[in-house]
């Protein structure tokens, strides 16, 4: 089976946040980004674990949705671990997206190292999608051989976080 092209965005979510993930994936695809969203990116007969691991590692930006009712699963934990390790070495960006009314204490420790953004309205979802698009564009323009300038990837200066309303 031929290898897939790298993804611009890997979208990680729990089952309780699937509708937000689907809406975000649609907005990112409208911006012509290659998005890995498990529900439509894993082909019949493919090994799920290997496909997901390859997708996380190939993406320029990993987005992890964390909602108030999200329960940590082995899949989500594995995706977050891989994405965080890649982000800490400068291979990609990791963007935690807090969905709805989630308390900071509910955010997994590993994700607290990265600046989070909040989605609590349709308008904020659009702003987050636009900021992710710009981050992917910036990552693609960066010279591949250049070492990372920061130990933790920095999001664009206009990456917005909305307040819970």
From the structure above, extract its key features.
165 residues; alpha/beta; five-stranded parallel sheet; globular
Walk me through what this model shows.
With 165 residues, the chain is an alpha/beta fold. 38% of the residues lie in helices and 14% in strands. The protein has five helices and five strands; from the N terminus they run E-H-E-H-H-E-H-E-E-H. The chain has helices spanning 18-30, 38-41, 48-58, 74-88, 122-141, and strands at 9-12, 35-37, 61-66, 93-99, 117-119. The protein has a five-stranded parallel sheet, with helices on both faces. Helix 1 links the parallel strand 1 (9-12) and strand 2. Helix 1 crosses helix 5 (122-141) and helix 3 (48-58) packs parallel to helix 4 (74-88). Residues 145-153 have low confidence and may be disordered.
- Oligomer description: single chain
Report helical residue fraction: 25-40%
Number of strands: 5
Class by helix and strand content? alpha/beta
**Mean pLDDT score, rounded?**
80
Summarize the main sheet: 5 strands, parallel
Shape: globular
Strand content: 5-15%
Main β-sheet, spatial strand arrangement? 2-1-3-4-5
Roughly how many Å apart are the termini? 47 Å
Q: Treating each run of at least 4 consecutive H or I residues as one helix, how many helices?
A: 5
From the alpha-carbon coordinates, what is the Rg to the nearest angstrom?
15 Å
Order of helices and strands: EHEHHEHEEH
| Low-pLDDT ranges | 145-153
């Amino acid at each position: 089976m031929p290898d897939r092209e790298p993804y611009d965005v890997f979208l990680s979510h729990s089952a309780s946040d699937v509708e937000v993930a689907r809406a975000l994936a649609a907005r990112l695809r409208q911006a012509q980004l290659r998005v890995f969203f498990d529900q439509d990116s894993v082909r019949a007969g493919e090994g799920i674990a290997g496909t997901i691991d390859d997708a996380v590692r190939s993406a320029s930006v990993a987005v992890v949705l964390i909602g108030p009712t999200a329960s940590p699963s082995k899949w989500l934990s594995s995706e977050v671990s891989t994405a965080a390790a890649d982000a800490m070495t400068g291979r990609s960006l990791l963007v935690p997206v807090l969905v709805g009314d989630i308390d900071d204490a509910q955010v997994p420790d590993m994700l607290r190292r990265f600046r989070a953004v909040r989605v609590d309205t349709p308008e904020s979802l659009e702003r987050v999608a636009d900021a992710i698009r710009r981050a992917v564009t910036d990552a693609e323009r960066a010279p591949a051989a250049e070492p990372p300038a920061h130990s933790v990837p920095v999001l664009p200066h206009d990456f917005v976080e909305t307040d819970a309303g």
